[in-house]
TrEMBL record:
Disordered: annotated segments: 1-21
Lineage of the organism: Bacteria, Bacillati, Actinomycetota, Actinomycetes, Kitasatosporales
Record organism: Streptomyces rochei (Streptomyces parvullus)
Statement: the UniProt record of this protein carries the keyword Signal: yes
Gene: ehuB
GO-annotated molecular function: ectoine binding
PANTHER family noted in UniProt: ARGININE-BINDING EXTRACELLULAR PROTEIN ARTP (PTHR35936:SF17), MEMBRANE-BOUND LYTIC MUREIN TRANSGLYCOSYLASE F (PTHR35936)
GO biological process, one term: ectoine transmembrane transport
InterPro entries, sorted: Ectoine_EhuB, Solute-binding_3/MltF_N, TAT_signal
The protein's name: Ectoine/hydroxyectoine ABC transporter substrate-binding protein EhuB
Domain Solute-binding protein family 3/N-terminal: from-to ranges: 65-295
Keyword terms, alphabetized: Signal
Length: 309
């Protein structure tokens, strides 16, 4: 999810907005296995200590396992058809926690909207779901620096007959527009003057592709990554070039990272140190590449920038 969710810093309630809304990018492979692992995530982690900056990292080293909150979203964090934890965020977490002296990670599946509440109530140690970083979420949790950035793209019919390349085109040409449940693209379209009540909301990018192929809509908006992946086997649809939506008159680029409880700055800071090493060595791209990420999704953005300060 990955971000899917994607999160504009202003308004309506969906995955990239101020309230952690429902899942943005859920596919059947991730969702089907949630029940099998749900029981494993029922117990709670130990409560936080009074140590300045938190002692969670020390406790995780002693336990030998870190619990990851995931939302069943391909390619961000999900359970595969073999019942194994995977996705860009869990695979990255495996590497970083290993370097921090924590041998294993364990998934705690939940709905996207329950990730921040679940983190706050200590059901897991970190959110590893490709969560977009925005100012409103930064009031509730602390984030690592983003491990990826993301632009938007459209799924359109082959040849892009209406010439739809951005949200302004969608509004001007009165295209029938769709996006996913909880997607930030809802707000982006509304920002450009599209009536929210006229937007067709579908569960995910697969349903969006089906809507375009069947002619129910002219365009489906999603992340550049998820849209380009889902159209690969389509004979009726294609994906447009990636673009940055305009927010408050400026191009806006989203970035996703890991979320921690506000008092666990020691863990977040140690995590960031290892993340930066992976960025500098190029290993980060190697870890994320199997999930469709490219050099274009690598970023030097910081959590501070995305949090609005």
């Amino acid at each position: 999810m990955a971000p899917p969710h994607r999160t504009p810093p202003w308004g309506i309630s969906h995955q990239r907005t101020r309230t952690a809304g429902p899942t943005r990018r859920s596919l059947l492979a991730g969702v089907a296995a949630l029940g099998a692992l749900g029981a494993a995530g029922c117990s709670r982690v130990a409560t936080a200590s009074d140590v300045k900056g938190g002692d969670l990292l020390d406790r995780l080293k002693a336990q030998g396992v870190a619990r990851l909150g995931i939302a069943g979203e391909i390619p961000f964090g999900y359970i595969d058809k073999n019942g194994e934890l995977t996705g860009e965020a869990p695979e990255l977490a495996k590497v970083i926690f290993k370097r921090l002296g924590v041998d294993r990670v364990q998934p705690v599946p939940t709905e996207f909207g329950s990730l921040i509440p679940g983190l706050a109530s200590q059901q897991f140690d970190v959110v590893a779901a490709g969560m977009y970083i925005n100012p409103d979420r930064c009031q509730q949790v602390i984030f690592s620096d983003p491990d990826y950035q993301m632009l938007d793209a459209f799924i359109v019919r082959k040849g892009n007959p209406m010439g739809l390349h951005n949200y302004e085109d969608v509004v001007k040409k009165k295209a029938k527009f769709a996006t996913g449940t909880g997607y930030a693209e809802i707000a982006y379209a509304v920002e450009h003057g599209y009536k929210e009540d006229d937007i067709l909301i579908v569960p995910d990018q697969v349903a969006g592709l089906n809507a375009v192929e069947s002619g129910r809509v002219d365009v489906f908006a999603g992340t550049a990554l998820t849209t380009r992946e889902v159209v690969k086997k389509s004979h009726k649809a294609e994906v447009t070039e990636a673009f940055a939506p305009i927010v408050d008159g400026e191009p806006h680029v989203d970035g996703g990272g890991f979320a921690f409880r506000p008092d666990e700055t020691n863990l977040r800071d140690a995590f960031n140190v290892e993340l930066q090493k992976l960025k500098k060595s190029g290993e980060l791209l190697r870890i994320l590449k199997p999930f469709g990420f490219t050099e274009n999704e690598m970023t030097d953005l910081t959590a501070k920038e995305l949090c609005g300060g």
